[in-house]
Amino acid sequence: MISRMTFSMNNLDEAETECFRNNDRFIPSRSFNDEFASNYKISSCTSMTDIDELPNNENVHYEKILNQNFSNKKKSLQSMTDLDFKVEENLNAQQSIHNRQIPKVPFKILDAPLLQDDFYLNVVDWGKSDLLAVGLGNAAYTWSYKTNTIDKISQLEEFNLVTGIGWDQTGQLLGVGTLHGRVQLWDINKNQNIATFDDHYERVGSLSIFNNLLITGSRDKAIKLRDIRMHKRLVATYKNHKQEVCGLKWSPDGQYFASGGNDNNLFVYSPKTIHPLMKKKHKAAVKAIAWSNKTSGLLASGAGTADKCVRLWQVGERKLVGLRDTGSQICNIIFSKHSDELITTHGFSNNEINIWQLKGLKKSHTLLGHSSRVLYLSMSPDGEKIVTGAGDETLRFWNLNYPIPHEYNKVERKLNFSEMSLNAMR
């Protein structure tokens, strides 16, 4: 049974950006138990069996860049613009393009202790039923935007972690991937775990559900396809990636699914065959993948630190139709539901959220607020808002300010994940 609890938090909705870091919150000390800390640390990457594939790790790249910039004692660091990591000048000029005014600060900030600071995980997803699913440490929770209630969905064993989260299209079925390679399926209406799969032998950081078809991607390099009506039967296994599968998305019509890997590859498959229909090489890990709901076969991908580019693909023609160097590691990508726009979130150095016009991939807006990589992104069911999560252990809600009124924009919302996360540690 699901435990249901409601919490209050300090009202941060009217706070200025500089005040956000002063909000009252309880983050448990990670030093109280060295064994606990060491078990929660996620190892860097899978050992390579293919000698032609060099190890590639976005988290290590991130640490190296931070060390290089913050250990420089010859220069006093005044602002993020003083860092050695440069952004192309033409992107700054594009920020003057505005089709509408978007608030520069989030309208809601939630504390999220134990939200993992790991590029390869996907632990935030906003479902159609208006429930936000979040993996914090070794537990999965849902929070209702409308009723401001929080439910603990799954509590894993002590030294396990939630590494992947994903809703189906109805918002009634939730998939949960774990550090130990297990995948759980939860029926939210029935409040029960309806299936558990143990096919992967390393963490499952990406998963996607379309109707009755579940795909899961793991650090064991494999993608598993299941028909959930058949429970224990595995439909297909895809073994084209040479390193961890960190991005996985069904197309809106279910004809294709795309996968991105730490081997810098983007693959597009049909569930009818085990052979990729399209393979495209990037220069860094491909975690950010999104399909357009408005244009059939339009796929967007974004890659990590050594690449930094947004690419648009027309899958039917198997060709590149758009390219833009963003100047920063791309952690997430998503299409707007209301306009011809693309939204990306980024890592070092600016930790920003960018909105791009699809035509010409021109940047129209930049949103700042997170103090570390913006590793997680999801959009509300109505398409009017987004939520972002970062290693700063906060979830921030942003209004995209489309001219579409909606009743529950006026609902008061207060929440704190902190106390629930403490229970996950016990």
Describe the structure.
The structure is a single chain. The protein is mainly beta and 426 residues long. It has one domain (99-425): YVTN repeat-like/Quinoprotein amine dehydrogenase (Methylamine Dehydrogenase, Chain H). 8% of the residues lie in helices and 37% in strands. The chain is built from 4 helices and 29 strands. It has helices spanning 34-40, 58-70, 89-94, 418-425; strands at residues 3-5, 108-111, 124-126, 131-136, 139-144, 150-155, 162-167, 173-178, 183-187, 192-197, 204-210, 213-218, 223-227, 234-238, 245-250, 257-261, 265-269, 278-281, 286-291, 298-303, 309-314, 319-325, 330-335, 341-346, 353-357, 362-367, 376-379, 385-389, 394-399. The chain has a 5-stranded antiparallel sheet, with helices on one face. The protein has a 4-stranded antiparallel sheet with strand order 2-29-28-27, with no helix packed on it. The two termini are 18 Å apart. The model is unreliable at 1-52, 72-98, 406-415 and 418-426 (pLDDT under 50).
